[in-house]
Amino acid sequence: MPQVNIVFYFDELIAAQAQKLDAIKAHKKGLMQQLFPNSTTESTP
Fold it and tell me: DSSP E strands: which ranges in the chain?
């Protein structure tokens, strides 16, 4: 059945894109933390 192969292909494609998106979001979070360090980690008088 060719339809099953197409569905499986798109399922795998969506999963790969979701994984890529998660990696990009994690990278963005790291960059944002470098640009704007969290002020709660610094000791305040």
Answer: none
Segment 1-7 long-range contacts (CB within 8 Å, at least 24 positions apart): none
Q: How far is CA 8 from CA 2, 18, 19, 21, in A?
A: 10, 15, 17, 20
DSSP symbol at 39: T
Q: pTM of the predicted model, to two decimals?
A: 0.66
- d(CA 35, CA 13) in angstroms, rounded, equals 33
> pLDDT per position in the chain (45 positions), as tens?
577 899 999 999 999 999 999 999 999 999 999 999 875 555 544
